[in-house]
Amino acid sequence: MKIIEVKDQQAGGQAGFDIFKQALADKAQVFGLATGSSPISIYQALTASDVDFSDKISINLDEYQGLAGTHDQSYRYFMNQNLFNAKPFKESYVPNGLADDIAAETVRYDKVIANHPIDLQLLGLGQNGHIGFNEPGTSFDSQTHAVDLTPSTIAANARFFANEDDVPRRAISMGIGSILKSKKILLVAYGENKADAVAAMVEGPVTENMPASALQTHSDVTVIVDHAAAAKIKNRENIIVK
């Protein structure tokens, strides 16, 4: 893993923007995208720039089950507000959280990924080490699947809702196996509450109890962290400090 340590999330957004811009220069066609607070500074840098995604394809990691794309807490709505409205893609795929047949929806989404191999996949990191909504215990071979969210993930996401009872209990998520097929992966994490997960992801054993540790098996991963999130990494020799 290439680890870039920055002073704050705004600097991380610029570093992430540079990676997106380089991917475009390298003729990347398909971008895997993430939601949540961590990627927002990258999206802000992208929307403020002159980059053009109008002939590109985006594939999002996940979506809450039971929320329409017009719901203000759905991930489709998040992407529209934070990126797509300003920087539209030729095609943008997000799982259908209102699909009548969830099993069929996961199969459909796997076909989308298979037909459009991801050149650059953006990830956030959960406090328990989840990537996408792949909670601890998820198989590293997993493809798109329906997920029961853990209490810690529900609690962490409650800040976006009026109260915790409003947080959906299930989601559709790209699997860890799907993520690992991406040609290049960029993960961003900020704050001291992510420090344990970052250290375990980077230096801990590769175990399904720490989903993000699967990234140690990938050949091209860049991690952007601020000082607080990097605080518990023991071996700092290879960290690039910006």
Automatic annotation (TrEMBL):
InterPro entries in alphabetical order: Glc/Gal-6P_isomerase, Glucosamine6P_isomerase, Glucosamine6P_isomerase_CS, NagB/RpiA_transferase-like
The enzyme's E.C. designation: 3.5.99.6
Family statement: Belongs to the glucosamine/galactosamine-6-phosphate isomerase family. NagB subfamily.
Keyword field contains Acyltransferase: no
A GO molecular function held by the record: identical protein binding
Entry keyword set: Carbohydrate metabolism, Hydrolase
Protein name: Glucosamine-6-phosphate deaminase
Single GO cellular component term: cytoplasm
Group of enzyme by EC: hydrolase
Gene assigned in the entry: nagB
Purpose of the protein: Catalyzes the reversible isomerization-deamination of glucosamine 6-phosphate (GlcN6P) to form fructose 6-phosphate (Fru6P) and ammonium ion.
